Amino acid sequence: MIFPTLQRPVSLITTDPTTPTKTVQRTSGAVAIGPILQGLNKPVNDLSRGCAVTDIVNTVAITAIQAQQEQ
Question: Where are the domains of the chain?
Fold first, then answer.
C-alpha cells in the first residue's frame, strides 16, 4: 500500500491530463501551457476553473498566434 496511514484504498490514477501536468509545473517551476486544441476550423483552447492569471495570459497568446496563422 502506498499510503499505509489511510483507512481506505486511494486510486492515484487520473484520466485528466491536466492534473499531472500542473503538479509537475508547480513543483518544478516549469511553464506548462495547454491543453492546446488542434484540428478545429477556428482556434479554440480550454482553461480550467482553477487556472492562474498567467495560464489565462499564456493561453490567450497562443490562441492569438493560432488566429494569425489562419489568415
Answer: 32-70
